[in-house]
Amino acid sequence: MPRVVFREERCKGCELCKEFCPKGIIEMSGIINIMGFHPATVIRMEECTGCAICARMCPDLVIEVEREDKAIG
Amino acid sequence: MRKVFARPKSMKDMPMHYCPGCTHGIIHRLIAEAIDELNVFEQTIVVAPVGCSVFCCDYFDCDAYGASHGRAPAVATGVKRVLPDKIVFTYQGDGDLAAIGTSEIVHAAARGEKITVIFVNNAIYAMTGGQMAPTTLLGQVTTTTPKGREKELNGSPIKMSEMLSVLDGSAYIARVSVHNPAGIFKAKKAIKTAFETQISGKGFSMVEVLSTCPTNWGMTPLKALKWLEENMIPYYPLGEFKTPTEVV
Ligand SMILES: Cc1ncc(C[n+]2csc(CCOP(=O)(O)OP(=O)(O)O)c2C)c(N)n1
Ligand code: SF4
Q1: CB of A8 within 8 Å of any CB in chain B?
Q2: How far apart are CA B140 and CA B113, in angstroms?
Q3: pTM over 0.90
Q4: Is the pLDDT of residue B24 over 90?
Q5: Is the per-residue pLDDT at B234 higher than 60?
Q6: What Cα–Cα distance (Å) separates residue B12 from each residue in B28, B159, B173?
Q7: For ligand 1, is residue B99 a contact (CB within 6 Å)?
Q8: CATH number of the domain at B24-246, out of 3.40.50.970, 1.10.390.10, 3.30.450.20, 3.30.200.20?
Q9: Which ipTM score applies to this complex?
């Protein structure tokens, strides 16, 4: 199953990943990170397809994506 | 399990100072991905501008110069002529490239310097607090155009890509945007083509990237992407204005 890993301490809470996730499974967390932002987090990891659109929209390299098949473009 | 998306190796693992949602970070990543894919990491030299991206050399893990405001194409000219085997690129904002540095960019392109320019057009002087740039749209409110830019008073915004593409010395000129995933995909492709143009010695290459400044535009990051799409793209059409095959 694909998996996205968010480095929450690097997230500035801009919400671009949340807006563009085709599955709508990203939400802003209630916690406040070390920089004072509400970091993005995945609420239903089992629905993630590993498309990496969230990671491509992220300006701060917060997100890494792992999948079983080969790398995408 | 294997990583299908991770930090490109030519980018340092450190937090960037840009504001939340600022697309400077996306553009940095696309450049680093292109450098990695072309396998030129060891040979690449970046020339940093003055503007919000003044510290971009802290993020690219390659050798770097910092140029004074607008002079990056002149510095890059010197570096490339002395070290022709290096891959030399500048990273410049619209205040840097299209205002104080107009002379440097025009003549570097006219001379056909074999450098690559990544031109980040966010329609404003961001670092200094949001003054009008030559690329500010008509009607756009900035700190120096509180009633919106007026054609009578300020002239019309300059379309740098169109302007430089008519010079014989330019080999590859494209305008892209990073306002959505499809735009980001095309932006990456154009940046890679620009570097390939330099690597194959075909001449001057520039990619103009339409970018957001949520902070000085006074918008949320999402609203800023929408504003870019609805206002900037109609005035600054996307596409390739010149490709190496057209070089005479
Ligand atoms: C010679 C000189 N003149 C003026 C300045 C002030 N200054 C610093 S950044 C800047 C504008 C930068 O705008 P832009 O190139 O669009 O980059 P951005 O900050 O929008 O990314 C100006 C005018 C300076 N640093 N040096
Ligand atoms: S001021 Fe604007 S261009 Fe500069 S880092 Fe902030 S959002 Fe980006």
Answers
A1: no
A2: 34
A3: yes
A4: yes
A5: yes
A6: 11, 33, 28
A7: no
A8: 3.40.50.970
A9: 0.94
